[in-house]
Design goal:
heterotrimer; A mainly alpha (292); B mainly alpha (328); C alpha/beta (415); A: 292 residues; mainly alpha; B: 328 residues; two-stranded antiparallel sheet; 14 helices
Chain lengths: 292, 328, 415
C-alpha cells in the first residue's frame, strides 16, 4: 500500500462523505424540526434523480443548471407529502413513533411502485453532461469533478442552512415551532405552514443532492435503497436534531468507508460504517452532537 | 388486576383455543396446495410477528433487525443438518438458544439507546451479520445452503409435496407465541412494561428490574423468531443470506403487528391473517404485469391503515364491542 | 390438475382421430409457466424477458417461414395444433416466492412445464419444486454451474454455465498468448451474490490450472453506493486483464469510477450480465470501446442465418431493444421446451421429460451459435459453445471461437 493509495482513498472518502452529508441534511433538518424520521428519504432522492434525468433527456438542461429547478420541484413535493401524509401521522393519538415510521415507509413503497409504473424499471443514466466523467488530477491524486462540485455544494448548503436557521425570521420560527408548537400558535404562527415549509426545505436539499448524483450514478426505481440506510446512519451518528451533526457524520462515514476498504476486503466496507455507528452510540447514546 | 381484566383474559384464552381448533380443521376442507402454502406463511408470520411484538410492542423497544434471529435460526439448523447430520429438531433448539444468548448480549448495550438510535442500531447489527454470512465460505457464503430432500420424513422434518406437516407446525408455533404473550401480559414483567408505558417517571424507579425484564423479553422474542427461521429453512429447503437475513424480513415481521395493533394480544394474528394473503394474492395476480402495481397497492395500504388506525385493526373490533381495554 | 390435462389429452386424441379438419377447429391450449422477477430491483430483466417469451410464443402459435422448430404452421402439431399459452409469475428474486409461485403455476394454472428464472438462487427452489411435482424445468438463463449437479431428473439447461463460459475466456487467452501477446496477470472483480461468487470460483480454478496469476481478487457488495476503493485496488494491481462479473448497476458505476480515477484497464474480459445490457452501453458505451464479454448470442449470426435478424426485428418491435445474451437464451428456452411438448404429444410431465432427454436439435435451427442442443444425463447441454463478443463502433462483434468469429480481436483493447 503506497502513500498515494492512502491519500487517494482518503480524498475520495472525503468527497463521498460530503455528498453523504448533503443527502442526509434534509433528513436531519426534518427530524430536528419535528422529531420525524422520513423513511421515504431514499425515494425522495430517487425522484430527484429522475427529475434531473428527464430534464436532461427531454429539454437538454444540464444537471448543474437543473439542480435549482429540481430543488424547487422537490420543495413542492416535500410540502405536499407533509400536507397529505405526515400531517396526519403527527396527529396519531397512539403509537406515534410507529405510525410515523410505517406511514413514511409505506409511502416509500408506493413511490417505488409509481416510479416503476411510469418510468419503467429500466436503468437510466445522464450521459455527456458538462462535468460528467471529467476529473482533475493533482500529483497523481484524482478528484472527479461531479463529486468535487457535490462536495462544494454540500459545504455551501450547510453554511447556508446555518445562517438560515440562526439568522432569519423564518429560521427562528422553525426553531421556535420545534421547541414549543403550542406557544407559537399563540403568537400567530401556523404550525402546519412552518412544518410544510420545513419538509419542503428538507426535500429541496435532497433535490440538490439528487441532481448532482444523477451526473455520476445510475438511476432506477430502487436506487434510493443504496443510500437510505447510509443517510440514517449519518444523521444518527452526528446526532438527531443537529444539522451540523449530519455534516460531520457524513464526513466520518465517507472516511470510515474508504479506510475500511484499505484494511479489509471491500465487500466488508459497510461493516466499518456500521461498527463505528455502534461504537459511537454505545459511548454517546445521542450521537456526536445530538441534542435530544 | 381487576376482575374485568381477569375476565377478559379468560375470554381471550377460550377464543384462542376455539380459533386454534378451527384453524386445525381448515386443511380438511382446503386441499389446494397454493392456498395451503398461503396459510402456512400466514401462520408463520403470525408467530414471528407475535414474537416481535413481545419486545417491540409490549416493551416498546422497536426492533427492525429481527431478521438477524430469523437468519440465525435458519442457518444453525441448516448447517448442523448438512455438515454434521444433526436433526433439524435439535438444530431448531440450538438456533433458538444461540439467538437468545446473542439477543441478551446485544440488548445489554442497546437498551441504553432511545428511540431512533435504538431502531437504527438494530438495523445495522442485522446488516453486519448479513454481510458476514455473505462472506463466510464455510457457511456457503452467497451460494447459500441447499437442504437435500429425500422423501417424506418426520424425523428430518421434510416433506416433498404435502403442506400439512408444515401447516400444523406453524400453527403450533403461532399458538405457542400467542400463549407466551398471553402469559406475559399478566406477569410481573407485563405489569412493569405497562407501568413504564403509562408513566415514564415509573421507569426511573423501576430502572434495574425493567432493564432485566427487557433482556428477558429480548431473549424470548429472539428464541421464538429463531425457531421460525429454522422452520422456514425446512419449509423452503434452500436458504441464502439475502433471503433469510435481509432487511425485508425485519419489516415483514413487524408489519402484521403494526397493522393489526402493536402491543396487543390479537394484533399480530389479525394483521397476519389480512396482510399475508393480500401480499401473496396481489403478487400472484397483479405482480405478473411487471409494472409495480402490486407495490403501489401494498404500500398505499400500509400508509392508509397506519394513518387511519394508529392502534391497529384490533381497535375496530374493540370499537364495535365498545370495549376500550382490548386495544390496550 | 388431472382434469385439464385429460382435457388436453382427449382433445389431442380426438383431433388425431378426426383428422385435419377437426385439428383446425381444435383450439385447446398448452400452458407453460414462465417465472421471472417482475417487480423489485431486477424487474427490468423480467420485463424484457416477457417480451422475449411472447416473441417465442408468437412464432410457435402463428405461421412463420423460419427454419426454427415449430415456426411453420400454427401451434403444436403434435397436440392437434394446440396453442402455447404463457402464464407469467413474479418471484421478486426471492427463493421462497419462487417456490410458492411454481407450486401455484403447477397446481392452479396447470402448466405442463416451467421456464425461468434469471436469479440462480431462485432457480434452486423452482427446480426443486418442479422435481417434486414431476414437471420439467428449463433453466433458460441461469449460469450457476452447481444447478445441474444436484441429481435432479427434471432439470434441463440448454445454455452454457459459468465454467463453460470462463473456459472459453481462458481458451481465448491461451490463443492470444500463442500469437505473442503478453497475458500473465488477471484481476477479478465480482459482486457478492451467487452469480459473482460462482463466476469467481470458476475463474480462480481455471487461472490456477492454466498458469495465470491473479493479482487482485475484489469481491464487492452488490449495489454499493460507491466503488471508489475497489477501483483503486484494481488500478494499483493494473493487471493485464480485468475480469468483472457484475450486474448492470455495478457495471455502470464501475466504468464511471474507473474513468474518474484515471484507470484505463489494459483489457476487460467481462462475464456477461451488466456488460451485455443495453443500459450499460447507453450510459458508458464510449468508455467501453474494445471490451470483450462472453455471451451465448451474437447478432452477427444474422449474416449467416437470416432468420436471426428477422426474429430480432420481431423482438425489437415489442421491446425496443435488440436481443441480448439473456433475452436470446430466454427465447430459445421456450422454443426447446415447446418442441419437447410437441414431440411428447402430451402434457404429461414424464412424457415431456422423456422428449427433452431425447432432444437432438442441430445448432443451425436455433438462433444461437451452438453446435447442437442435446442434454447429458444431468440435463446440461454441453454443445452450447459460448462465444466472445467485442464491443467496437457501437456494435458487438464475435471474435471467438474461430469458427464463429467474424473479425479479429482488437488486443489490447485500448490500442
Amino acid at each position: 500500500m503506497t502513500a498515494e493509495t492512502i491519500i487517494q482513498s482518503l480524498a475520495s472518502g472525503l468527497l463521498m462523505g460530503l455528498l453523504y452529508g448533503l443527502i442526509a441534511a434534509g433528513l436531519a433538518l426534518i427530524f430536528g424540526l419535528m422529531d420525524v424520521v422520513n423513511f421515504a428519504h431514499g425515494e425522495f432522492l430517487m425522484i430527484a434523480m429522475y427529475a434531473t434525468f428527464f430534464l436532461f433527456a427531454f429539454f437538454a438542461i444540464d444537471p448543474l443548471l437543473a439542480a435549482p429547478l429540481v430543488a424547487a420541484a422537490l420543495f413542492v413535493f416535500g410540502a405536499v407529502v407533509y400536507l397529505l401524509v405526515v400531517r396526519f401521522a403527527m396527529r396519531a393519538k397512539a403509537n406515534a413513533g410507529m405510525v410515523q415510521i410505517f406511514s413514511t415507509f409505506g409511502l416509500a413503497i408506493v413511490m417505488r411502485g409509481l416510479a416503476q409504473f411510469f418510468f419503467t424499471p429500466d436503468y437510466r443514466s445522464v450521459t455527456n453532461s458538462w462535468v460528467g466523467g471529467k476529473t482533475i488530477s493533482i500529483a497523481g491524486i484524482y478528484l472527479p469533478e461531479p463529486q468535487l462540485i457535490g462536495a462544494m455544494l454540500s459545504i455551501a448548503a450547510f453554511v447556508a442552512l446555518y445562517f438560515f436557521i440562526n439568522r432569519t425570521d423564518f429560521g427562528r420560527a422553525l426553531e421556535a415551532t420545534r421547541e414549543d408548537a403550542g406557544a407559537v400558535a399563540l403568537v400567530g404562527i401556523d404550525k402546519n405552514r412552518v412544518f410544510a415549509l420545513g419538509w419542503g426545505l428538507g426535500a429541496a436539499l435532497v433535490g440538490l443532492a439528487g441532481a448532482i448524483m444523477a451526473i455520476f450514478f445510475y438511476i432506477y426505481p430502487d436506487v434510493g435503497a443504496s443510500f437510505a440506510l447510509i443517510a440514517y446512519v449519518t444523521v444518527a451518528l452526528g446526532g438527531f436534531g443537529s444539522v451540523f451533526g449530519a455534516f460531520a457524520g457524513g464526513i466520518i462515514v465517507g472516511l470510515v468507508e474508504a479506510s475500511t476498504a484499505l484494511i479489509l476486503p471491500p465487500s466488508l466496507k459497510s461493516v466499518g460504517i456500521y461498527a463505528v455507528y455502534l461504537l459511537v452510540v454505545f459511548i454517546r447514546p445521542r450521537g456526536l452532537f445530538g441534542s435530544m | 388486576m381487576d376482575t374485568q381484566f381477569a375476565q377478559r383474559r379468560r375470554r381471550d384464552l377460550i377464543m384462542a383455543a376455539c380459533l386454534a381448533v378451527v384453524a386445525a380443521l381448515v386443511p380438511l376442507f382446503v386441499k389446494d396446495v397454493y392456498v395451503q402454502n398461503i396459510m402456512v406463511l400466514t401462520l408463520m408470520y403470525a408467530a414471528l410477528s407475535q414474537s416481535w411484538n413481545i419486545l417491540s410492542g409490549y416493551c416498546g423497544q422497536i426492533s427492525l433487525g429481527h431478521a438477524l434471529y430469523f437468519g440465525l435460526g435458519a442457518y444453525t439448523t441448516a448447517l448442523l443438518f448438512t455438515k454434521f447430520g444433526v436433526l433439524p429438531w435439535f438444530g431448531m433448539l440450538a438456533g433458538g438458544a444461540i439467538s437468545a444468548v446473542i439477543a441478551m448480549a446485544l440488548g445489554y448495550p442497546c437498551f441504553r439507546l432511545r428511540g431512533h438510535y435504538f431502531v437504527i442500531a438494530t438495523i445495522v447489527i442485522a446488516e453486519i451479520a448479513l454481510v458476514l454470512i455473505q462472506n463466510w465460505d464455510w457457511a456457503g457464503a452467497a451460494l447459500g445452503i441447499d437442504i437435500p430432500v429425500r422423501g417424506d420424513s418426520w424425523l428430518k422434518f421434510q416433506f416433498t409435496r404435502s403442506k400439512l406437516p408444515y401447516f400444523y407446525f406453524a400453527l403450533a408455533l403461532a399458538c405457542i407465541a400467542w400463549f407466551v404473550t398471553w402469559w406475559l401480559e399478566d406477569s410481573k414483567w407485563g405489569y412493569w412494561w405497562r407501568a413504564v408505558k403509562d408513566n415514564p417517571d415509573a421507569a426511573e424507579s423501576l430502572g434495574v428490574v425493567v432493564f432485566n425484564s427487557k433482556m428477558g423479553a429480548a431473549a424470548v422474542s429472539a428464541f421464538l423468531v429463531a425457531v421460525g427461521g429454522s422452520f422456514y429453512a425446512q419449509f423452503v429447503s434452500y436458504i441464502d443470506p439475502e433471503s433469510v437475513m435481509g432487511f425485508q424480513f425485519s419489516l415483514l415481521m413487524a408489519l402484521p403487528a403494526v397493522l393489526g395493533g402493536i402491543g396487543t394480544l390479537w394484533g399480530p394474528v389479525l394483521g397476519a391473517v389480512i396482510l399475508i394473503p393480500l401480499t401473496e394474492l396481489t403478487r400472484s395476480f397483479i405482480g405478473g404485469s411487471g409494472r409495480g402495481v402490486d407495490l403501489i397497492v401494498y404500500g398505499a395500504l400500509i400508509v392508509v391503515i397506519s394513518l387511519a388506525l394508529p392502534r391497529g385493526l384490533v381497535s375496530v373490533f374493540s370499537m364495535l364491542t365498545g370495549r376500550k381495554e382490548a386495544a390496550r | 390438475m388431472t382434469i385439464s390435462r385429460r382435457n388436453v389429452l382427449l382433445g389431442a386424441t380426438a383431433a388425431a382421430a378426426l383428422g385435419p379438419i377437426a385439428a383446425r377447429a381444435q383450439t385447446s391450449e398448452v400452458a407453460i409457466g414462465v417465472i421471472y422477477p417482475l417487480s423489485g430491483s431486477s424487474a427490468a430483466i423480467g420485463v424484457d424477458a416477457q417480451h422475449a417469451f411472447n416473441t417465442a410464443a408468437d412464432i410457435i402459435n402463428k405461421n412463420y417461414d423460419f427454419a426454427l422448430p415449430l415456426a411453420k404452421g400454427e401451434g403444436l402439431s403434435g397436440l392437434g395444433g394446440a396453442k402455447v399459452k404463457l402464464v407469467f409469475a413474479d418471484h421478486q428474486a426471492d427463493p421462497q416466492k419462487g417456490r410458492a409461485e411454481t407450486e401455484r403455476l403447477i397446481t392452479q394454472e396447470k402448466v405442463c412445464a416451467v421456464v425461468g428464472t434469471y436469479q440462480s438462487a431462485v432457480a434452486v427452489t423452482v427446480s426443486q419444486t418442479c422435481e417434486r411435482y414431476g414437471v420439467p424445468f428449463i433453466s433458460a438463463d441461469n449460469s450457476s454451474p452447481s444447478l445441474h449437479r444436484r441429481g435432479l431428473k427434471y432439470y434441463f439447461r440448454a445454455s452454457p454455465h459459468d465454467e463453460m463460459f470462463s473456459a472459453a475466456m481462458f481458451d481465448f487467452f491461451d490463443a492470444m498468448k500463442k500469437k505473442g501477446q503478453k497475458i500473465e496477470t488477471l484481476a477479478l472483480f465480482h459482486e457478492d451474490t451467487i452469480f459473482g461468487t460462482d463466476s469467481a470460483n470458476a475463474q480462480t480454478k481455471l487461472a490456477a490450472e492454466r498458469g495465470y496469476k491473479i493479482v487482485a481478487d475484489i469481491k464487492y457488495r452488490a449495489n454499493s453506493p460507491s466503488l471508489t476503493a475497489e477501483v483503486q485496488q484494481l488500478k494499483a494491481a493494473n493487471a493485464d486483464v480485468l475480469m468483472p462479473s457484475s450486474y448492470t448497476t455495478d457495471s455502470i458505476l464501475l466504468v464511471k469510477t474507473m474513468a474518474e480515477l484515471g484507470y484505463k484497464p489494459k483489457n476487460i474480459m467481462a462475464q456477461d450480465a451488466g456488460f451485455s445490457e443495453k443500459a450499460t452501453y447507453d450510459a458508458v458505451g464510449d468508455k467501453l470501446e474494445g471490451v470483450i464479454s462472453r455471451g451465448s448470442f451474437s447478432l452477427d449470426l444474422a449474416q449467416k442465418r437470416p432468420m436471426v435478424g428477422l426474429i430480432n426485428e420481431m423482438y425489437r418491435a415489442k421491446s425496443g431493444k435488440d436481443f441480448n445474451d439473456y433475452t436470446s437464451r430466454q427465447f430459445m428456452g421456450l422454443i426447446i421446451m415447446a418442441d419437447a411438448v410437441n414431440r411428447a404429444k402430451s402434457t404429461d410431465g414424464e412424457k415431456i421429460r422423456e422428449a427433452l432427454v431425447a432432444t437432438d436439435m442441430p445448432g443451425d435451427v436455433t438462433i444461437m451459435p451452438w453446435r447442437r442442443v442435446k442434454f447429458d444425463e444431468m440435463g446440461q447441454n454441453n454443445f452450447a459453445d459460448p462465444v466472445l463478443l467485442q464491443y467496437s463502433a457501437k456494435n458487438f462483434v464475435t471474435i471467438f471461437p474461430e469458427q464463429a468469429a467474424v473479425s479479429e480481436a482488437i488486443w489490447p483493447m485500448n490500442s
